[in-house]
Write a structure and sequence with these properties.
Elements (H helix, E strand, L loop, with lengths): L19 E6 L3 H7 L17 H4 L3 E4 L4 H15 L19 E6 L8 E2 L1 H7 L3 E4 L8 E4 L4 E3 L3 H4 L6 E8 L2 E8 L20
Antiparallel strand pairs: 1-3, 2-5, 3-6, 4-5, 6-7, 8-9
């Protein structure tokens, strides 16, 4: 079910939408699984440039289903331009080095009076975007695991952190160096929009 175009463009926002979506990086999921989504728990910028900072204060950003692809592309571009090796962004190459790749969260339970139209995001994505200052609890957050919507708490059991990456090698000062980069088709973005209203798995 689609959301209406924002009221500023002539049609009222539909009350109590069943689902909205939040695109983020995998390395944020541990924090989200523990604390839910709230601007006070945010771990820095992961989409866009400093030009978006004025718009992100005291807010979490959400999109309708047909904006998922745009925000995933923005996140991929951010990662590619700011991280040398997104599989090992800290350079540790161990389990503590959380990889960076796009994932989609599905949000339920928000009411109309808890949402504010994000004019900047709506303009850029050509899909309705919203922001909220309320805390979104983990019980209202699902993760797209490439096949189903699953509880956010299960992220580390269901997400294959090798799947989003390809690897190649190059020579640096005569030494062969392997590096990783994001695949053009991201497994935890593909299918999310098409299955936006699918029943989740508990």
């Amino acid at each position: 079910m689609k959301y209406k175009i924002p009221e500023e463009r002539g049609i009222r926002l539909r009350a109590n939408p069943p689902y909205l979506f939040h695109v983020t990086s995998y390395h944020h999921l541990a924090n989200i699984a523990e604390h839910g989504l709230h601007y006070e728990k945010r771990q820095g910028r992961s989409i866009g440039t400093a030009a978006y900072d004025f718009n992100r204060k005291d807010s979490i950003f959400l999109t309708e289903a047909d904006g998922i692809g745009y925000w995933a592309e923005r996140l991929e571009a951010f990662i590619e331009h700011n991280v040398e090796d997104p599989k090992y962004p800290m350079g540790y190459e161990d389990e503590e080095d959380m990889p960076m790749f796009p994932v989609v969260l599905r949000i339920s339970g928000l009411k109309e009076d808890e949402l504010h139209i994000d004019d900047v995001g709506t303009r850029d994505a050509l899909a309705n975007a919203y922001k909220t200052s309320v805390r979104i609890e983990t019980i209202d957050i699902e993760l797209w695991d490439g096949e189903d919507w699953v509880p956010i708490e299960d992220y580390d059991e269901l997400i294959d952190t090798d799947a989003p990456f390809e690897s190649d090698s190059d020579t640096d000062d005569g030494e062969e160096v392997e590096y990783n980069f994001l695949k053009s088709e991201q497994p935890y973005i593909e299918g999310a929009e098409e299955n936006a209203d699918a029943e989740g798995i508990e």
